[in-house]
Write a structure and sequence with these properties.
Helix content: over 70%
Shape: elongated
Number of domains: 1
Largest sheet: none
Radius of gyration: 18 Å
Strand content: under 5%
Length: 196
């Protein structure tokens, strides 16, 4: 554990680290968002015809999202590391692996609840990180809060509606992919260099 040093400027350390990688992260988020939105739209438009192809693309996109959360955690400065990123990364990777290998009939309910819990963790992580950034007076954190609230609302909808058929799973997956893509677009659009 690193002890708190009152003479060290942790906020400036975060700002410097963020400013170095902001452009790469923004481009990565835009690309991931477009892939997720396209996969979500195709999943909704062609529920039966190309389900297998879209299922594999969606699985790949979700696994990449999980890996990017591990990278985000590893690249954060010590006092701003958020363990929720590890949890959401593991859940995303687990969901992607399930989408790759398990037949839809066996995973309908499991994936529905996994998606809901993933969205809850993801939303909570974004809201907590936004409040931590606000505490340190880092501007423009509203995009993170909005993204977190959007994730939690979708999770509640997933938990309240019955999901029994493969077709319903298809639309649940489509909604998840589109919402995650939109959330990433919102975050990417809100990514600016931190200046004081």
């Amino acid at each position: 554990m690193r002890w708190f040093d009152s003479d060290f400027d942790y906020v400036q350390e975060l700002a410097d680290t963020w400013n170095k990688r902001q452009k790469k992260m923004r481009i990565t988020y835009f690309i991931l968002a477009v892939i997720l939105i396209i996969a979500g739209i195709l999943t909704a438009v062609y529920p039966i015809g190309i389900f297998a192809i879209i299922q594999y693309l969606a699985a790949l996109a979700v696994i990449i999202l999980g890996i990017s959360e591990f990278i985000s955690y590893a690249s954060m400065t010590y006092h701003f590391k958020d363990p929720m990123l590890i949890i959401t990364g593991v859940l995303n990777i687990l969901l992607g692996i399930m989408l790759f290998f398990m037949p839809v009939v066996l995973t309908v309910q499991v994936i529905t609840f996994l998606l809901a819990f993933l969205l809850i963790f993801n939303g909570a992580q974004r809201i907590a990180f936004a409040s931590k950034m606000k505490y340190f007076r880092i501007p423009k954190t509203g995009f993170l809060t909005f993204s977190g609230i959007l994730n939690i609302i979708l999770a509640v909808i997933f938990l309240l509606l019955p999901f029994m058929s493969a077709l319903a799973l298809n639309y649940i997956l489509a909604a998840y992919l589109v919402i995650m893509g939109v959330a990433l677009l919102i975050e990417a659009a809100g990514m600016h260099k931190i200046s004081f």
